[in-house]
Amino acid sequence: MTRGTTNPNRLRRMDRWIAAVHGAELRRAADPVAVDLGYGAAPWTAVELLQRLRTVAPSARVVGIEIEPARVAAARPYERDGLVFRHGGFEVPVPRRPQLIRAANVLRQYDEGEVAAVWERLCARLAPADGHSRGGLLVEGTCDEIGRRHVWVALGPEGPRTVTFATRLGSLHRPSDLAERLPKALIHRNVPGEPVHAFLRDFDRAWAAAAPYASYGARQRWMRAVRDLAADWPVTDGPGRWRQGEVTVAWRALAPRG
Questions:
Q1: What DSSP letter does each residue of 121-177 carry, written as one string?
Q2: pTM score, two decimals?
């Protein structure tokens, strides 16, 4: 069981990214089910996930899953059309394979060596890929208490795809400030010789070189830094997402050595 602490709007950056990147897959599904795994002591994140997904997929449904029965009982009064709460864990007890599993701030209390097995188990529960779909999406990551800084990994049925860094730009001193929110698979790898350390080092250098753009605002400085970073790193998104204080990089570039 996690500590369960949460706040309204804590996961808004992650939710908006999911809606933008995975919305088309949700719309194509006949019955798009999303899982908020480990929603915590209060159901706010599941309620908000439903609201945000329905802006891009009106038929989306959300199932909030918690391993602590008392939390499930406390959430039941918030059930509504498209939103239910269930007792469970990594087995993801829903009758059909979901199009989305969001697991935010869940694996931070686990050992790094346990992450791969959890990822594999969760990915096996996702809707499979077919000729018209890449399959379901697992979004697993960590954020601060009020949602200013996030880092998450996106995985499909085949495994890890990308890593996204997202921040409230007005609160950012330098990009490596996001290191404290790296997901469990990466947080202990932020040391010399590891790809994620090299990435954050290069990001800080690009941020420093983009200092003249700060006179136009933090957003313009971020966008310039990301544009320069993309010359050496496989950035997979574009200016439309950069403007939101995000950058997404292919997992293979940041994956731990060994």
A1: HHHTTSPPPBTTB---EEEEEEE-TTSSEEEEEEEETTEEEEEEEEE-GGG-S-GGG
A2: 0.96
Phi first, then psi: give them for residue 167, nearest 5 degrees: -155, 155
181 near 142, Cβ under 8 Å? yes
pLDDT per position as a tens digit, 51-79 = 999 999 999 999 999 999 999 999 999 99
191: left (phi over 0), alpha (psi -120 to 50) or beta: beta
Contact 196, 186 (CB under 8 A): yes
Sequential DSSP letters for 190-243: -STTSHHHHHHHHHHHHHHHTGGGGGG-HHHHHHHHHHHHTTTS-B---HHHHT
Task: Establish how many alpha carbons lie within 13 A of residue 42's alpha carbon, considering only the half-sphere containing its beta carbon.
Answer: 9
* Cα–Cα distance, 224 to 43 (Å, whole number): 38
> Looking only at Cα atoms, what is the longest distance across the chain?
54
Q: Tell me the per-residue pLDDT of 222-236, one tens digit each, with 9 for 90 and over.
A: 999 999 999 999 999
Kindly provide the residue ranges of all beta strands, DSSP E only, lying in 71-136, ordered along the sequence.
83-87, 100-104
The vertex-68 CA angle with 62 and 73, nearest 5°, equals 65
Record the tokens describing residue 167, joined without a space: 């921040």
Report the residue count for the chain.
Answer: 258
How far apart, in Å, do the first and last CA atoms of the chain sit? Answer: 30
- C-alpha to C-alpha distances, 163 to 4, 97, 113, 153, 194, nearest whole angstrom: 24, 23, 19, 4, 15
Rounded to whole angstroms, how far apart are CA atoms 151 and 144?
10
